[in-house]
């Protein structure tokens, strides 16, 4: 049903996806910085393939002060997503203050902007994660999908079954239904587990693709993991809070700028 | 004292060097030599030599572990590894330079103490305690620090534990067999067993048939009867050490896949940012160093068994002969490659007593 949300555009032929899904080639880690061949996107980092495509995806990336990674990531993702013949737009949500990094809140803001722009599918993505398989298609499935289940820094193993962070695909409708993520997790950790609790509460069982398709590498960076001291207490009441803490309780100012390669949302 | 006779000791009680019944709780009470010696020290006469010796003897005597049937003495040098090893690990976990510094210090320390202890107290348990402490420490760090990173699969953990189990089984069986030498010692004079040679081991103070060498790290003699177990224990130890260091390093470092099958670490620059990462990394490095040493010993054993030499004979060979892998040397025990191996693999306890009666 959701597949038909995009009206048939100008009698274009349907995009061909089988070869991408069946592809067996992995992208080598040393190729990442070199894969920059892509069609220049429309202003704001949006690209449309010349065929009738899957529902549009918005790639939402919480960000602060990692210029080098931003360059690698954005260039690579344009290449990767164009190979997948998707209609997509990249949103960089930039926390422009010195408070503790609030990943979940930034994702909520990014999701709000993306939903307002009419995107039916949200990909919540960390900036240091690089997908290594073209078959890991950046579109939404009927149930929320955990995309980064085979990460190199985790020895390509899944640390625990309910892990739901890193890269996640969820329909906008579902994201609104669960009231987004919690805004209260400041610092590292906990917000993804909170998110998973909300899915469980709304009977949204998550899915994963097989491990070989879900391979990711993590870009290296200085780890600044100021852990959220409150995260265990917050997590205990995760489901209770979901009614009043989330997408509808955002009271933060932000501005949206269109840059050539991405839409820049500055959160102050 | 006569009242106490016949009554069994509780785990904290013991008979001290003067045959008096004491209790561990009284360890720090009533030491005449210390009191007298200290008194003469503060009165400016210095600590007299005989008092000092007696005091050290009392310390040795009172340093005991609670044990079933009475507390047992612990020699001081055997306690050193239990304190030194964890300390070294904690210090080394601070930074790269601390790792280099503490590991080189330990190497020098071990070389020095090896020469010293072999000369002074050859029967010391120091090296055996060092081995046991290493195994326990490495396993504790793996199970309680590396596993909670949640990056190691249950199957991988089981596989490693099985390797360690295999090693411990070999070590135990090997030591049980080594202790059987004591039985043979009494009638070794009239033993008649073709091809068996008897050597006196100065450390074990027993006669050992077909001795290869005395292993201080296992604290027993290695001879033809347990050489096969010895080699197997080295194989298990090598596999366990290498595997555990690989699991740990790929957990704490940035890994990469070699030929899309083997996971190897490639960037360990962030391991000193947290204590848990640091100590895991240090334990992995320690495991790797041990693995290399074990591998050298293993290859040496394989070579020596193949050419039919014992370790003792090998050590006596001139350097030029060692370079040629001992092929040119005289080998009185050599029975050919297959027989050399079959006699240690298919070793069965010979019935010495029946032979001696005929």
TrEMBL record, chain A:
Domain of life: Eukaryota
Alphabetized InterPro entries for the sequence: Galactosyl_T, Galactosyl_T_C, Galactosyl_T_N, Nucleotide-diphossugar_trans
All copies of domain Galactosyltransferase N-terminal, residue ranges: 27-141
Lineage: Eukaryota, Metazoa, Ecdysozoa, Arthropoda, Hexapoda
Protein name: Beta-1,4-galactosyltransferase
Membrane topology according to the record: Single-pass type II membrane protein
Organism expressing this protein natively: Henosepilachna vigintioctopunctata
Pathway noted in the entry: Protein modification; protein glycosylation
GO MF annotations in UniProt: galactosyltransferase activity; N-acetyl-beta-glucosaminyl-derivative 4-beta-N-acetylgalactosaminyltransferase activity
GO annotations of cellular component type: Golgi apparatus; membrane
Annotated Galactosyltransferase C-terminal domain residues: 145-222
Automatic annotation (TrEMBL), chain B:
InterPro entries named among the record's database cross-references: Palmitoyltrfase_DHHC, PFA4/ZDH16/20/ERF2-like
Membrane topology: Multi-pass membrane protein
Domain Palmitoyltransferase DHHC: 196-315
Originating organism: Henosepilachna vigintioctopunctata
Residues that span the membrane, as ranges: 70-90, 96-114, 126-146, 158-174, 228-245, 285-309
Protein's name according to its UniProt entry: Palmitoyltransferase
Superkingdom assignment: Eukaryota
GO molecular function: protein-cysteine S-palmitoyltransferase activity
Matching PANTHER family: PALMITOYLTRANSFERASE ZDHHC16 (PTHR12246)
The record's note on its domains: The DHHC domain is required for palmitoyltransferase activity.
EC number: 2.3.1.225
Keywords: Acyltransferase, Membrane, Transferase, Transmembrane, Transmembrane helix
């Amino acid at each position: 049903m959701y597949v038909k949300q995009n009206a048939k555009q100008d009698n274009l032929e349907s995009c061909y996806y089988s070869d991408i899904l069946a592809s067996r080639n992995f992208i080598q880690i040393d190729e990442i910085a070199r894969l920059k061949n892509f069609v220049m996107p429309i202003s704001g980092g949006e690209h449309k393939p010349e065929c009738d495509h899957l529902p549009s995806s918005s790639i939402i990336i919480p960000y602060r002060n990692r210029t080098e990674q931003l360059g690698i990531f954005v260039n690579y993702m344009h290449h990767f997503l164009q190979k997948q013949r998707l209609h997509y737009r990249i949103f960089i949500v930039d926390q422009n203050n010195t408070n503790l990094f609030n990943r979940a809140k930034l994702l909520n803001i990014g999701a709000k902007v993306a939903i307002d722009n009419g995107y039916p599918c949200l990909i919540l993505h960390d900036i240091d994660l690089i997908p290594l398989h073209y078959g890991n298609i950046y579109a939404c499935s009927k149930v929320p999908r955990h995309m980064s289940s085979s990460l190199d820094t985790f020895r390509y193993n899944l640390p625990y079954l309910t892990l739901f962070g890193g890269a996640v695909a969820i329909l906008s409708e579902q994201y609104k239904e669960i009231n987004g993520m919690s805004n209260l997790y400041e610092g590292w950790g906990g917000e993804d587990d909170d998110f998973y609790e909300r899915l469980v509460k709304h009977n949204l069982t998550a899915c994963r693709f097989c491990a070989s398709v879900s391979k990711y590498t993590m870009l290296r960076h200085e780890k600044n993991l100021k852990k959220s001291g409150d995260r265990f207490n917050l997590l205990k009441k995760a489901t209770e809070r979901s009614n009043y803490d989330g997408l509808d309780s955002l009271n933060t100012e932000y501005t949206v700028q269109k840059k050539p390669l991405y839409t820049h949302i500055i959160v102050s | 004292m006569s009242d106490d006779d016949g009554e069994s000791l509780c785990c904290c009680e013991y008979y001290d060097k003067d045959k008096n019944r004491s209790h561990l709780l009284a360890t720090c009470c009533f030491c005449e030599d210390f009191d007298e010696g200290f008194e003469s020290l503060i009165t400016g006469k210095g600590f007299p030599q005989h008092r000092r010796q007696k005091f050290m003897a009392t310390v040795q005597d009172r340093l005991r572990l609670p044990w079933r049937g009475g507390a047992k003495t612990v020699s001081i040098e055997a306690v050193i590894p239990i304190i030194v090893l964890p300390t070294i690990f904690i210090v080394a976990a601070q930074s790269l330079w601390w790792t280099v510094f503490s590991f080189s210090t330990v190497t020098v320390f071990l070389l020095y103490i090896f020469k010293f202890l072999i000369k002074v107290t050859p029967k010391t348990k120091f090296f055996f305690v060092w081995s046991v402490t290493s195994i326990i420490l490495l396993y504790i760090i793996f199970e309680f620090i590396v596993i909670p990173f949640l990056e190691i699969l249950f199957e991988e953990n089981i596989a490693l534990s099985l390797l360690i189990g295999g090693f411990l089984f070999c070590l135990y069986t090997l030591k049980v067999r080594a202790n059987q030498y004591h039985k043979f010692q009494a009638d070794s004079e009239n033993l008649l067993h073709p091809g068996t040679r008897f050597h006196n081991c100065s450390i074990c103070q027993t006669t050992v048939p077909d001795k290869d060498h005395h292993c201080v790290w296992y604290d027993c003699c290695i001879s033809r009867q347990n050489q096969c177990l010895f080699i197997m224990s080295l194989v298990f130890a090598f596999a366990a050490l290498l595997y555990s260091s690989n699991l740990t390093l790929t957990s704490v470092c940035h890994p990469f896949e070699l030929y899309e099958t083997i996971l190897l670490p490639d960037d360990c620059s962030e391991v000193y940012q947290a204590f848990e990462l640091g100590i895991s990394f240090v334990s992995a490095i320690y495991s790797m160093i041990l693995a290399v040493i074990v591998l050298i010993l293993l290859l040496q054993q394989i070579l020596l068994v193949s050419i039919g030499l014992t370790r003792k004979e090998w050590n006596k060979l001139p350097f030029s002969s060692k370079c040629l892998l001992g092929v040119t040397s005289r080998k009185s025990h050599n029975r050919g490659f297959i027989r050399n191996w079959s006699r240690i693999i298919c070793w069965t306890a010979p019935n010495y007593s029946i032979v001696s009666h005929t």
